[in-house]
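Structure in, sequence out. Go:
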């Protein structure tokens, strides 16, 4: 049995408050769940290592080192912890950007129980909290030259904070204006084949003689930014996504005629004649599959661009109201050592006020009512807004001063 840290030895014996934020000078938090106390050690970032978790079993008086699953948060000099629903602990890391601030330690969720049964050991599992009510990803397919990229660019331009593009990997050579990491991750076939074997891809396909694929990371990056992911992939890729765990909306874009498709491909002038011929041959098969496979619930004919774009927005329920309701989250908040957190119903109040900054609007409300997902991936649906107690008004538009 390990040594009980002095700061909460009394609590182990006494009436340790349940469901209450706890904080210690030793950068450890202790959370009571039934007969167990979960001790989270923030670790001094200078000494490295990852954030640690131990369990004290009050019944046996023993310390347990659990198997820790999921991606762990980076060490943090100070953090707070709050128990939610008796099955997960919300950890708020100090001095952190939003994307690294909120973490969930699952201690009694169905996932953890299942893993405990399989592994025959005490298990805890981390998942990262992601801001925003990210909706289903959108898969857009259609023959080469039909206008998928054009429609996606318009959507991203009009709703920059709402949509994020899944940057695919490809073995084809970059076109003149294409940038690595923005339009594609341009890569070698041998490297990509190895990464496919290593399970790094959600889907991949051989398209027009080259390999194309969506990495798991490409989709995660978009979701972590609190945005809805758009995938521009071929029909084979769409089929693989449909068979995967990613729950997406599938849209097929069709040309008004084959002649018009050919005209657009030629006018784009990005392919050689041989490549154009190959793409047109493949287009016939893609059009057939797109319309008859039952894979695509939405089929859009891209005749007049503006009309087609409006129809796309209708499918995605992008009315003017939705547009104006959507606001971006601030980049980061300063959770100094002084911060405190408290839970009221489904809201977590994070108070970062200090003596010097007491006039500043630095009380934040984290809305936990729409949580989705969880370990071993991400816990999504966190919503946050600033609450200025001095003005007595809640600013739900996230416009932090
Ligand atoms: N509705 C439209 N009317 C006329 N031209 C269009 C229309 N939509 C797109 N285009 C043009 O057609 C060409 C092909 O469009 P785009 O590159 O977006 O196709 P794509 O489907 O993304 O092709 P690929 O699959 O090869 O990437 C571009 O030059 C674009 O400007
Ligand atoms: N299955 C996948 N298909 C993809 C992916 N990224 C793009 N594509 C499709 O390839 C063709 C050709 O694209 P181009 O940029 O060379 O013109 C087009 O139909 C895209 O939809 C991917 O990751 N997976």
């Amino acid at each position: 049995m390990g040594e009980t840290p002095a700061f909460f030895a009394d609590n182990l014996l006494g009436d340790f408050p349940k469901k209450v934020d706890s904080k210690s000078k030793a950068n450890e938090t202790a959370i009571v769940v039934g007969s167990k106390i979960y001790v989270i050690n923030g670790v001094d970032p200078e000494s490295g290592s990852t954030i640690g978790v131990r369990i004290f079993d009050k019944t046996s008086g023993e310390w347990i080192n659990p198997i820790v699953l999921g991606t762990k948060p980076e060490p943090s000099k100070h953090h707070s912890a709050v128990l939610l629903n008796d099955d997960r602990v919300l950890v708020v890391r100090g001095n952190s950007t939003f994307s690294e601030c909120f973490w969930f330690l699952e201690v009694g969720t169905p996932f953890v129980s299942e893993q405990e049964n399989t592994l025959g050991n005490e298990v805890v599992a981390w998942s990262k909290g992601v801001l925003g009510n990210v909706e289903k990803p959108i898969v857009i397919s259609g023959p080469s030259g039909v206008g998928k990229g054009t429609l996606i660019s318009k959507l991203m331009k009009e709703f920059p904070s709402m949509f994020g593009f899944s940057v695919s990997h490809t073995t084809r050579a970059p076109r003149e204006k294409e940038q690595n990491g923005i339009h594609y991750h341009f890569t070698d076939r041998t490297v990509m084949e190895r990464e496919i074997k290593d399970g790094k891809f959600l889907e991949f396909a051989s398209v027009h003689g080259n390999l194309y694929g969506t990495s798991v990371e490409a989709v995660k990056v978009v979701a972590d930014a609190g945005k809805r992911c758009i995938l521009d992939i071929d029909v084979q890729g769409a089929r693989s996504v449909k068979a995967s765990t990613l729950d997406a909306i599938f849209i097929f874009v069709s040309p008004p005629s084959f002649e018009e498709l050919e005209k657009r491909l030629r006018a784009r002038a990005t392919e050689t004649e041989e490549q154009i011929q190959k793409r047109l041959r493949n287009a016939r098969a893609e059009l057939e599959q797109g319309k008859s496979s039952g894979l695509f619930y939405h089929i859009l004919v891209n005749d007049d661009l503006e009309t087609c774009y409006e129809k796309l927005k209708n499918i995605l329920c992008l009315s003017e109201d939705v547009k104006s309701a959507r606001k971006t989250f601030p980049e980061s908040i300063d959770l100094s050592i002084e911060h405190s957190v408290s839970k009221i119903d489904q809201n977590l109040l994070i108070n970062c006020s200090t003596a010097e900054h007491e006039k500043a609007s630095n009380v934040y409300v984290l809305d936990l009512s729409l949580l989705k997902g969880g370990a071993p991936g991400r816990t999504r649906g966190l919503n946050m807004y600033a609450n200025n107690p001095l003005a007595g008004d809640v600013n739900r538009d996230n416009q932090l001063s």
